[in-house]
Amino acid sequence: MQHLNRTCACKYELDPSNLLFLPALVTIFGTYCGLAATHRLWYIVVLIIIIMRIVRTHNISILLLSLALLGIVILRCMSWQRLNQPLCPTSKVIKVLPDAWQNNGQQVKFIGTTMDHQRVSGVIYLKKCQQRWYYQRLTQPCWLVTNNDYYRITAATNEAEFDYARYLWQQHHIAYAISLKKPPLLYHCPVSSLNDRIHCWRKYFWLYLQKLPFQCRYHAQSLLLGSNDGAGYSYRRDLSKLGVIHLFSLSGLHFFILLHTLLLLGNYCGITKECLEWCFLIILPCYAIIAGGNLSISRAVLLAWLTIITHKIHWSCSRLSLWSMVIIINLLWQPYTLFTLGGCLSYLLSLVIIVTHGQSIWRQHVIIYLMSTPLIWYFNFKILTLSLLVNVIFAPVFNYLLLPLVYITGLLGPCLPWLAIGSEYFLTKIVIIIKYLASLPWLVIIAGRLSLLELLLLLTITFYWLLCYLKHRHRILSVLLCYLAVISMHRYPWEGRVVFFDIGQGDAILLEGKQHQYNVLIDTGGKLRFNHQQHSSRAEQVIVNYLHSRGITHLDAVIVSYQDADHIGDLPVILRQCHVREVVFAKGLLRNQSFVKKIKPFIAKTRLHPVLAGDTLHFGQQTLQVLAPTHPGLGTNHDSLVIYAVIAQQRWLFTGDLDRAGELQLLQRYPQLQIDYLKVGHHGSRTSSAPIFIKKIKPRLALILAGRHNRYGHPHTTTLMLLKRNKIPYLNTAQVGMITYHYSNFCPAFWQTYRK
C-alpha cells in the first residue's frame, strides 16, 4: 500500500498529464451546486477547496480551464432548470419505437415521443395474452393514436420513498404518462433515421433471444441488450443483497471484456489493430444505442472512443485524464448523471480501478468494497456484509465461465438447442445458489439514512485509511468506530415519532419510540395509486423503505384495525420483509377467510394476539388501550379496532374505519373521553365523524388519511364543515403527503408534512 500511497500522491496528483482531474472535480461539484435541491452550501464549500487546490498548482491553463468549465456548467444548469420544465403534451399521436414495448403481466408498457416532441410513458391494460404479445412482436416504429388525456406522474410524498417522477424527469425527460383501458389505434410509420434503424435491429435481436429457455433468455437480454423485465424482479433483488448485481447487468466491465476479446480475435485472424480501431469508431456509438443507452456502457464506449482518437492523433493522455474528459462530457450532456446510485458507483469505481492499477486483484476488490459501502449506505440505507467475499468468489467464475457462456448461448443458442439446454441447466444452478446465499442471515445490515455530511466524512476517512493503513494499521479501529458510531446514531435515535403515511387509499400509521424502544405499525395499506408506475406494492415502496431509513430492523406489532384491503392488503408484504413479533387484531377476525389467508404462511414465526375492549397492550414503556370492539365480529366497519394512547404527554385516538354508531357507543362507554389528536374515521367519509362525537371529544388536531382516494371522493363536505364549525384544524395526507409528529427530551414537539 506504500506503493499505492506513492502512486496516488505522485503519479495522480503531481504529474501534469493528470491535472485535468481537477477541472473534472470542478465540473462535478459545480453541477451539484447548480442542480441540487438541498445541501448546496456543502457543495459550494467543497468547490471552493478544489479551486484553492488548483491555484496551488500554479498552472494558469488548468485554472482558466476550470473557471471556464465552471461558468459553462452554471449556465448549463440555469438553462436546464429554465427551459426544461415539464410541459403537458398536447398531441394525441405518439411515436413508439419497436424496442420500447414491455410486457408486464396484465399490462403492456411503452415509452414514446409525441408529435410536439414530448417524451411520455404509457400503459395499456389488456385481458388477452395474445394482445399483449402482439405489441411485443412489433418490429418497426408505430404511430399510436388515442383520445385519452395525459396525467402528471406522481412525485414521492413520503420520506425515504423513491421519487420515481423525479428519476424519470432527470434521467429520461419524462414527466407525463397516459393510461389506456383498451387497445389504441396503431399505424406503422416508415424508418426515417439511422436511430430508428438501430432500434429495429435491437428489437430483431430481442425476438431472436426469445427462442431461448427462460434463464438463458433473461441473462442474454441483461448482458447483451441491457433489458430487464418484471419476471426477474426477485432475482435482481437477491443479486442486490449479495452486492453482485453489477456482474449480472450490462456494464462497462462486460464491454471492455468484449472489446478485448474482439481485439484478440482480430489479431488471430490477421486483422491489424489500426483497422479494427477505425471500425470501432463507427461501431461503438451504434453499440451504445443497441445496449439501450445504458449509463455504464455509454461511459465505457466514450472512454474507448476517446482512447482511440487520442491514439490516432498521437496525443499522450493518461487514463485518469481520459476518465476526466469522459465525466466532463457526460455531465455537460446529461447533468443529472451523478444524482443516482448507478451513476455515482459507475464513475467512482472506475476511478478506483484507475488509481489502483497494478495492485493485486484481492486488494482492488477490498478498496472497491470499502469505497462503495458509504455510497450504497447513503442511497439504500444498508451495508452489505458479504459482498466483498461473494465478489471475490463470483468475479472469476463470471468473467471466465458464465459471461462467455451467455455470449455464446445468446448468439448460437437459438440455432443449437443442445447448447441452450446445457446452458439453461448451468444457469438454473447458479440462480439456486444465489437465492440460497441471499437468504443467509446478517447478509444486510439495516443502518439507517446517512446525511450528506456523514457520507463525505466516511468517504474521506475511508480513503485516508486506504492510503496510510500499512504505516498506521491501528487506525482501522478508529475507522470502524466511526462507522459504528454513525450506525448507532441511526439505529437508536433520541427522537420519537408518530408517522401517518401517504399510502394511497388506505391507512398506515407507525408509532416509533425514542431509541426504538418500541415500533408499532397500525394497518399497512394495500391499494396502489392508479397513476403510479412501479411494480412493487406501496408498503414496500413507502413503509419498508422508511423503516430501513430509520434503522428499524423489527416491528413489535402490527395492529390490524379492520379487514378491508385498504387497511391490511399489504400485510403479507410487511410480514415477509420485516420481522414482526405479533399481529394484534379484534377477536372474531379469524373467522374472516380473507384475513386468515393473508396470515396463514406466517403463523409459525409471528404470534397472533386477538383483543377486545378493555385489553391493554404493552410495548416497552408504551401502553396502548383497546376501546373497541366490545364483542367478537367479522371485521366490519362497526367492528373496527379503536386504540387509545398517551404519547409524549398527548392523548391520541386511532379509530380505523369506525362508523357513526360505533362512535356514539364509544361515547356512552367513555363519557369523559378527551383527545388531543384524532385519526378521523373512514378517511373523513360521511359514514363516520358523528357531530356529537366530534363536539364532545374536540381534538386539537384531526388527521385524515387518504381523503382524496376514498370511494366518496374528497373528504365529505359534512365532515370538513363539522371540523371547521368546531374550529378544529385538520391535515389530509392526500394534500400534504406524509405527516409526522416529532418528540424528544431535547426540543419541543412539532409536526412536519412531506410534499415534494
From TrEMBL:
Source taxonomy: Bacteria, Bacillati, Bacillota, Bacilli, Lactobacillales
Residue intervals passing through the bilayer: 21-54, 60-78, 244-268, 280-308, 320-339, 345-363, 375-394, 400-419, 426-446, 452-470, 477-494
Entry keywords, A to Z: Cell membrane, Membrane, Transmembrane, Transmembrane helix
Originating species: Candidatus Paralactobacillus gallistercoris
Protein name: DNA internalization-related competence protein ComEC/Rec2
Membrane topology of the entry: Multi-pass membrane protein
GO cellular component: plasma membrane
Any GO BP annotation: establishment of competence for transformation
InterPro entries membership: ComA-like_MBL, ComEC_N, Competence_ComEC/Rec2, Competence_DNA_uptake, Metallo-B-lactamas, RibonucZ/Hydroxyglut_hydro
